[in-house]
Amino acid sequence: MQTFSMRWKIMFADRAKIIIKSGKGGDGHVSFRREKYVPNGGPDGGDGGKGGDVIFLVDKGINTLTDYRHRRKFAAEPGQEGGKKNCHGKNGEDLILKVPEGTLIKDAASGKVIADMSGDNTRQVILRGGKGGQGNQHYATSTMQAPKYAQPGQDAIEIEVQLELKVIADVGLVGFPNVGKSTLLSRVTNAQPKIANYHFTTLQPNLGVVDMDEGFGFVIADIPGLIEGASEGIGLGHEFLRHIERTKVMIHMVDAAGTEGRDPVADIKAINKELEAYNPQLLKKPQVIAANKIDAIAGDENEVISALRAEFEPQGIKVFPISAVSGKGLKELLYEVKNLLANCPKEVTVYEPEIDPALSFFKDEPYAVEVAADGAYEISGPKIEKMLGYTNMDSEKGFAFFQRFLREQGIIKELENMGIEDGDTVRMYDFEFDYYK
């Protein structure tokens, strides 16, 4: 008696392009106290509220990006303007965007990774709302006791992002069209996937959970049929190759009966070539071969299976003759997959961020660098002020992105040309740090 089963769920949408916008900071207010017996009261304009952040949140109850296919623009709430009597404007509401686990958020213009909503990263602020402007009470001086100026709130940031769902599955099931992948899944589940005799029968990756004995289970992704040239974007192959990147083990499925007139050895080599062209690291994953359709041959072995064994088993890739129709050999195949998974790292592949959208948004703003009276190197200007407002400098990641921005914009080079040395102080408005090369 076989001791596994599969639960079925279908991926309907795995890509979407949307525009997200943080909330503008509320403007500072200009007002003056008007009290009885105090005809010339001082300034009491309140600060504006902070604009809302755009936050992405993993929701394990959803598994597609369908919600983002029919709506293009999403915006957080702006902060309110400050009021009289030092009243602070209300902060804008944050915008929470829920996505499936495994969603990659990329800058649509550059294709660089902003965030990977995988592993422990279940909640991330992608765009910070603008800081509220200061009210006129902050601008009173001994020489100007009635300032009629208040600071405007920082602008909102609007960017276009590409959302890509990279399936988080332990096992990727790959093979040319019509080798029986959908039949295999239909054999071990009650689902009835569409089975037809043409390329890309399965137009979306299908996820299933294989439950085995002793509480062990794994997630398997049926990757749509690949064709030669997939890594170059031919057909739909390039759309699906990315789903294999997170898998730990790959099952190559081939037609051992030769009913399609194909050479299974050549097919596996062709698919591995596409995988390598797309990402060479994919070939380092453990592989196993499912030689399907043995119900259509005489006995359990034929020249095709012998050729597969001779070619791949010396490379450490085992061959399992199976019949997706009768179920023969499936138990042995799945137990081999279980053993391979037991030796794989437990961590999910998580892509490192490559860009902070706030830092790129204001890269063309001016700035100035000068040496202050106390010897500190002061960097100022709209570019720096805005960056500080939109970057979380208390976080190691935020500070690292800011340092990278300073380097990319040539500011670090300019400091070095001015003679800055290790240990010298760099000041940017209220933020200071010690320079080290």
UniProtKB/TrEMBL annotation:
A GO cellular component annotation in the UniProt record: cytoplasm
SUPFAM superfamilies associated with the record: Obg GTP-binding protein C-terminal domain (SSF102741), Obg GTP-binding protein N-terminal domain (SSF82051), P-loop containing nucleoside triphosphate hydrolases (SSF52540)
Domain OBG-type G residues, every copy: 169-342
Lineage top rank: taxon: Bacteria
Subcellular location, record wording: Cytoplasm
Enzyme kind, highest EC tier: hydrolase
Swiss-Prot/TrEMBL cofactor(s): Mg(2+)
Domain OCT, residue spans: 359-437
Subunit structure, as described in the record: Monomer.
Functional description taken from the UniProt entry: An essential GTPase which binds GTP, GDP and possibly (p)ppGpp with moderate affinity, with high nucleotide exchange rates and a fairly low GTP hydrolysis rate. Plays a role in control of the cell cycle, stress response, ribosome biogenesis and in those bacteria that undergo differentiation, in morphogenesis control.
Annotated protein name in UniProt: GTPase Obg
